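Journal club prep, shared notes

We agreed each person brings one worked example of a sequence with its structure written out as tokens. Mine is Kinesin-like protein KCA2. I'm keeping it raw so we can talk through how to read the token line rather than staring at a rendered picture. Sequence first:
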Amino acid sequence: MAPRSLLRHCFEDALKTKLKSIESQLNEALNASDARSTIGSESASVISSPKITESTADSSSVTKRLEEELAKRDALIEKLHEENEKLFDRLTEKSGLGSAPQASSPSANKPANGQGREIGRSDSSKSRSPDVFASPVSQDKTGNSGAIVKSSNELAKTTPAGEYLTSALMDFDPDQFEGFAAIADGANKLLMLVLAAVIKAGAAREHEILAEIRDAVFSFIRKMEPKKVMDTMLVSRVKILYIRSLLAKSPELQSIKVSPVERFLEKSNTGRSRSSSRGSSPGRSPVHHHGHGSRTALVDEHVHGFKVNIKQEKKSKFSSIVLKLRGIEEETWRQHVTGGKLREITEEAKAFSIGNKALAALFVHTPAGELQRQIRAWLAENFEFLSVTGADAAGGAAGQLELLSTAIMDGWMAGLGTAQPPTTDALGQLLSEYTKRVYTSQLQHLKDIAGTLATEEADDPAHVSKLRSALESVDHKRRKIMQQMRTDTALLTKEEGGSPIRNPLTAAEDARLASLISLDNILKQVKEVIRQSSTGPMRKSKRKALLELLDDLLTQMPSLLDIDHPCAQKQIMEARKVVESLQEDPDDPAPQSNALGEGEVSQWNVLQFNTGTTAPFIIKCGANSSGELVIKADLRVQEPKGGEVIRVVPRPTVLADLSFEEIKGVFEQLPEAVSLLALARTADGTRARYSRLYRTLASKVTALKETVAEMERGGVFKDVR
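Then the structure, token by token:
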């Protein structure tokens, strides 16, 4: 294993070095793009008007250079992503100790939304977009209210990639890094690996990998939030993935109403934008904008808009002369001012979106790539000088809209992933709220089921058992959900600004379950009584014991709810009828013993016993004409003794199937001396002592010696000699 481990570490170091080199090239390209890629003015104005005929040539030239820089940046981003994916594949392959990677189709390397694999690009501008990794809400609707609660199979499912990421996220220790930059680099690389893992998993397995690493991801993010080292745009992308995964499996969330993008944008000089009537615009998604009624509104109607401050440049010859006198090229100055203005818009957009849950909802409910198209459409409609037509100016206008929409999107994304101690960021708050909604919906669903079961009247033991099993299953699922809620890392605690989850009251359902458990136990005892009654004629003592047991069951009725009384009473009364209808066993020793007279025994043998606890007493034994053991003794051992009585002593086999109480009932029909000599603490002990006493007495009777020998050969005696 040592050579393999060494090879692994060497390979990882080489890949990481190459990755840092590519990132350095990317940063240089981005800086160059900021300095040279935009069209600006020398003041607060940011966009030059394509209507100015004398600047048409300059605009075309700048647009061409802009496209070249964007192409270079795209190539670097693509290369960075490929190297990042290779690193991820190698790491996960090694962490799986040579396990074969799961095969994936060519489309598995692309997001489900069809926007390509680029980590930082949208479909048109190829600048960073929040929707690149998010799959559409409609992608997987096979799940229902079980979006959070996992089955045992789901909990046990692991993959090499998931195991590696879980370990890496949980084991990340900022104290092992030197300096802020090193910590930030390590943390952001892990977030990028999470995004790469989801892309590689493809649409079919996206939800599985997200579920597998969910706890580790949110524990890592919450741990790193106070240090403020994470790229908040990466944080936003990761959380959008999780919220959309939850949306895809939760119908109760898909009907949530979110405010349209127009409510989050307004012109700085005229207030609310004039495009609120654009409900049928092709750039809008009609799926997420619902009317009032059954739909659930997420946010308050009073949504403040982000003020977009864009002014049309007023070209003047005087400003050109001033720049020439100062030795500054007009194009260089224009690019410098434009770049600064775009960065200013991005920062303002970031500040606007921090803690903005309504905006976060717009991001997660809008299909991938559509939100930026909506922003571009809003800009084109509200700033007409950006949407001119014409062969010469078309390219320039498109570039201006793209730059502005990207600046706004980047700022919003960065702000939505910025934490607000002691709570988390807006997307985290939204995820916590949505997760609680799903939990609450699941608990309410279980309560509805339990409520229906709790009002159903049981007809027979089978129905009682079925109802009890169903209510216990619902109660088990409810407790499982409660346990998951307590351990869910995505939920915010009260100290973190989270709202408490209102658990539906289940007192009535719990009371019915307790009643059914008691009823089930009563019916099992009734069933046992009926079983014992099915053996034919019954001894009087045993029948008496069974009837007393049924009477005792009737006294347990107060422990049942009223709805369960009819079933219990019906079963107990039917059992009583069965017991009372049985004939008494003709071999019952009690009635026969009373009919015996002293003349039926030809010879009595006298035995004296001393237990040590009473005075010595005498038992006389003999045999009757039927070959049965007969004893004659005082009714009681101590005074008043009650005189001598004659009784037939039952054979040990009579006690074989009797309970302890039934055995004592048999002894009550015999002289007290038998109980003193044979009664033990348990039924088995009593049977053993009785067998010993029976052998002792019968052995003294000459006529019964052969009978005793046969009983010994047949294993009738239960005592151990």
